[in-house]
Amino acid sequence: MIYLDYQATTPLAPEAREAMLPWLSGPEAAGFANPHSPHRPGRSAAAAVELARDRVAALLPPGGRVIFTGSATEAINLAILGRKPNRLAVSAIEHAAVLDTARASGAQVHLLQTDSEGLVAAGTAVPAGCELVAVMQVNNEIGTIQPVAELAGAAHAAGALFLCDAVQGAGKLAPPEGADLIALSAHKLYGPKGIGALWVRDGIELAPLIHGGGQEGGLRSGTISPALCAGFGAAAALAGARMDEDARHVAMLWDRARAMFAGWTLNGSAARRWRGNLNLRREGLDVARLMADLRDIAFSAGSACASGSGRPSHVLRAIGLADPAVKSSIRIGLGRYTRLPELEDACARIVAAATAQGV
Ligand code: PLP
Question: Is the CB of 165 under 6 A from ligand 1?
């Protein structure tokens, strides 16, 4: 199997797995202890959680706190529903975690459009009366990097807070500047699934969505998993230490893969892009057939979150593609553990299978 779907999820880094193991121990060691218990093993587990919190915080701006959640989706729900806005503005290419939560909030929702490159213009006006603006750092389908510092400035000038879904950018790029709330997910940065985080700028109040024992400063009740936290923390520390190296590696892979897809059209800006993402289309391509022909290559027909929904990608539509172009697009995701020879092999086979379709 050649894995080329790094936007859907990333493999667990061996270092993250190692960091998790002591907290998954059986009765012979006390690593299973409840981190909210005041006895010694409980305090050790709590110390592991706090170390992980510091490590995740090191990927984020100063002046805020990290709240652990079960996923980035939960973090985004906490950010939006926890502010109870009456009016909000979100980019048209946000992940469903933002778009659907915004709609479910009952607030009036304004969509901020992108250009055909998949970029929200830095000078975009924030509609009057908005209390919250959400624009993602890196798009999960087409990899475009948004001008979040400028958009956060526009939000503040309009009296709104700025939420940034940094799920696809965290650990890969410098943190989004100017944001008040930032959502992250461990499994997109080589950590475990089942844990995310919301970074909250100091002084910003949120109402909890989950009530109970008052963990996570009262914002997210429920016993926290030291193993998941430790894995997230180790993955964050590694991503921070390897940021330049990882970026150089995916850029090298991207250049080679892009050259192999001569004659295919790139979806989204080439220049303002995280190059772990290669989203391409070829007129007339039957993507379902392509995927059926290449079952040992894990790539995507669009956003993995939307796959199976049968809905054409809202992101590709937002950049102006008609349905046939949307349906003839594929997404190849590259990352830290992608090796050049396997990538070249996969790209050659994708191109050959497409050519065999006569497109
Ligand atoms: N935001 C973006 C941009 C994503 O790519 C994803 C996952 O695909 C999410 C949010 C949701 O993350 P999680 O799986 O942690 O809920």
Answer: yes
